[in-house]
TrEMBL record:
Keyword Repeat set for record: no
Pfam families: YdjM (PF04307)
PANTHER family: INNER MEMBRANE PROTEIN YBCI-RELATED
Keyword Hydrolase: yes
Transmembrane segments: 90-107, 113-129, 136-155, 161-190, 211-231
InterPro entries for the chain: YdjM-like
Organism of provenance: Marinactinospora thermotolerans DSM 45154
Protein name as it appears in the record: LexA-binding, inner membrane-associated putative hydrolase
Listed GO MF terms: hydrolase activity
UniProt keyword terms in alphabetical order: Hydrolase, Membrane, Transmembrane, Transmembrane helix
Length: 237
């Protein structure tokens, strides 16, 4: 799938699980999600849903922060055996989830930096950029991202769920790519078998552009109409 579809799936995926996990405890993390957490989680999950493609030099995420993401992408490409190999495995999702959860426990400032990075990636993936003027797009993206992160910070958003949201975003990416023709090696490095290979639609083909993307967009609108009035009625923690 293309970057914008992955980003949209991250938003939809987070919104879809909010009613399911609300008030529960998963792996020691208590989910008490208000409007701020819904918005923050949507951006985090959307950005995380692009992380597995960091191993591709032309991917949306690799282009987001210039030389920083390009260098990191080249490193991941080398470490995980090229595009759509190790970065598209359960191992990668686990590593990303553990690392970001460790950040959440270690430092509030580290969390804010990571939220900034993922939000910027999400905005880029969702199409908030200008291909004809890359510099202007990067400045606008950074300003918009900073405003969003600051607003979330001042509203007191709790990011104790960070690692789980990042891992979940990666899993959503895998699900999207399994629906395409190439499939993904979920069990790498134990196995290179590609789940879903030759069984789905063509990446950026008519099905993705005319069916998948519109449906994901509609889902975001519907979930927003349902979730935010519902979340506002939740009792204060």
């Amino acid at each position: 799938m293309m970057g914008h579809s992955h980003a949209l799936s991250g938003v939809v995926g987070w919104m879809a699980i909010v009613p399911l996990v609300q008030g529960t405890e998963i792996l020691g993390v208590r989910f008490d999600l208000g409007p701020g957490e819904i918005i923050a989680g949507s951006f985090v999950c959307a950005g995380a849903a692009l992380l597995p493609d960091l191993d591709h030099k032309s991917a949306t995420i690799t282009q987001t922060y210039g030389v920083v993401t390009k260098t990191l992408g080249a490193l991941l490409n080398w470490l995980f055996g090229g595009h759509r190999n190790g970065t598209h495995s359960f191992l990668f999702a686990l590593i990303m989830g553990v690392l970001t959860q460790a950040l959440a426990l270690w430092s509030d400032m580290a969390v804010q930096v990571f939220v900034f990075l993922l939000t910027g990636i999400a905005l880029n993936g969702l199409g908030f950029g200008m291909d004809k003027n890359r510099t202007a797009a990067e400045v606008i993206n950074a300003m918009g991202t900073a405003g969003i992160v600051l607003a979330l910070y001042t509203s007191g958003v709790d990011y104790s769920w960070m690692g789980l949201a990042v891992a979940f975003g990666c899993l959503l990416h895998f699900a999207g790519d399994m629906a395409t023709e190439m499939g993904v090696p979920l069990l790498w490095p134990a196995s290179k078998y590609r789940f879903g290979k030759n069984m789905g639609f063509k990446t950026d083909g008519p099905i993705e552009r005319k069916v998948i993307t519109p449906l994901l967009t509609i889902a975001i609108v519907l979930y927003s109409i349902y979730l935010f009035p519902w979340a506002e009625m939740l009792p204060e923690a």
